[in-house]
Amino acid sequence: MKRTLSLVVMMVAIAGCGSDSGGDSPTLSTPPPTVSLPLNGPYDLVIVPAAACALPATPYVLQVDVTSFATSAGTELRATLPGGGDALTLDMLYPMTGRLQGALSTRSEVPLTAMTYVRLRDTGSGIVSLSPGGRAELLNGTMAGEVTFFTELSALACMSADHSWSLVAR
Amino acid sequence: MLVVPLGSCGDDNESPGSPGSLPPQPVQVEPAAGASLETDRPLFTVQNATGFDSGEADYTFWITVASSEREVETVTVPAGRSTTSIQFPEPLLRGATLAWTVTTANASGEETATGSRTFRLPPVECGLSGDPYAKAVEDFWVPAVCLANNIYNDPEEALGPPDAGGQGPDMFFGFVSLGNGGWVTVDMEGCTIDGPGDDVRVFQAVSGEPVTLLASSTPTGPWVVVEYRKPCGNRVPGMPPLRRQCTFDLLDAGIEETRYFKVQDGELFPCPGGTVSEGADIDAVEILNPKP
């Protein structure tokens, strides 16, 4: 009886060794769990043009109001400047829970400061995460297309697939 | 006596990242360089770097098309114990030589990375078709605010040969308007290969709205950009002026063969835009270099 018990314990220990060490069957690492909460309310839209663009005065930050809503195609997101209108819109689809994909565009130039403006003709995607305050937000999504920075005297446009964007909860 | 088998677990008695146990940079373990794999969801494993072990760092796995460096997939996970392994939840891209690299960052802000290794998946599953035009719609999305204002909202109009006609603004026929950044995904059934010159043509109606073209070996991606926001207003000899077109070369994306295309609006202008055909107006998609 004593011998049998020892044998059983040893077999358990050996099995535990294999699963811990990741030898023949490595343990898969997994990304953080998907955030199912949609984005709603006030956010900062943060645009970081690709480094290769060397655009001045980055990042570009605009306050936006965000609404997520159900449609026949799924859940969509629309962001506009505070007060609505369509000078700037983010029209996006949640193609699956916790992901966003769609367009970031402006009708013309949108003021950043009293003397500077930005125009967007871009597509973007990203993964929803939780802010420290518990709201859904999106950080460092990928963005491709054209970003144009204006002053009263000049316009600098840059086309790249390496821009990034965020919707940071306010 | 029972302590002996526990002691044989090599990693258990070592503190993570102890000197001599891990290399200074992460080392790619599998897939091997140049591997031809039989699965669409291979296991990727790196040996962790010292100072970047379990509880100390995150690892980001990057999959790109080798020749173009276009991104295919990426994922960030916490470090495993001594090694870090991942498997992407969805199939990766067939029809191109892919590359994988891994970067890691720890809480101190230090970063290090592997080199790059290439690998291939099995060939694309191509249907048999002598007809070069799109056969089926796999996916379609146009922002709700654009759908509400546009009147050309049938994605099936992107199938078959070009047939756009009629008169504007509200008596056109034969195309689908994609609104602000919308898309239609089509199955060509047969495959397009990277052959001489351009390989695929998109027929776009009304004016010269830009189009973004993405390619994949499955109807759900991953999608690789062939070209961003390409102006799509070239006249087609022998066709009515309403029918415009632009052509794309798979070489730009490093793709050798593909079956599915996602055609996305490249005008990227907020709706409502004052017309009933906002966005690129897609009439047809045509293979120029079919796989024999």
A few lines on this structure:
The complex is a heterodimer of chains A (170) and B (292). Chain A is mainly β.
Secondary structure elements and pairings:
The complex is a heterodimer of chains A (170) and B (292).
Chain A: H1 2-21, E1 41-48, E2 60-71, E3 74-80, E4 88-93, E5 99-106, E6 110-111, E7 116-130, E8 136-151, E9 155-169
Antiparallel strand pairs in A: 1-2, 1-9, 2-3, 3-4, 4-5, 5-7, 6-7, 7-8, 8-9
Chain B: H1 3-7, E1 27-30, E2 35-36, E3 44-47, E4 57-65, E5 71-78, E6 83-86, E7 98-106, E8 111-113, E9 117-120, E10 136-141, H2 144-149, E11 165-167, E12 171-173, E13 176-177, E14 183-193, E15 200-205, E16 211-216, E17 224-230, E18 234-235, E19 243-248, E20 257-265, E21 281-287
Parallel strand pairs in B: 2-9
Antiparallel strand pairs in B: 1-3, 3-6, 4-5, 4-7, 7-8, 7-9, 10-14, 11-12, 13-21, 14-20, 15-19, 15-21, 16-17, 16-20, 18-19
**Low-pLDDT runs of chain B:** 1-17
Main sheet: strands, sense, barrel of chain A: 8 strands, antiparallel, barrel
Distance between the termini of chain B: 67 Å
- How large is the radius of gyration of chain B? 24 Å
Please indicate the percent range of residues of chain A in DSSP E strands (runs of 2 or more). Answer: over 45%
Low-confidence stretches of chain A: 1-23
Relative helix content of chain A: 10-25%
Structural class, from secondary structure content of chain A?
Answer: mainly beta
The CATH top-level class label of the largest domain in chain B: Mainly Beta
So how many helices of chain B?
Answer: 2
Tell me the series of helices and strands of chain A, N- to C-terminal: HEEEEEEEEE
**Number of discrete domains of chain B:** 2
If interface size is counted as residues with C-beta under 8 Å from the partner's C-beta, which chains form the largest one?
Answer: A-B, 45 and 49 residues
Oligomer state equals: heterodimer
User: How many structural domains does the protein architecture of chain A include?
Assistant: 1
Number of strands of chain B: 21
**Radius of gyration of chain A over all CA atoms, rounded:** 24 Å
Calculate the terminal CA-CA distance of chain A, rounded to whole Å: 67 Å
* Global outline of chain B: elongated
Average pLDDT value of chain B?
92
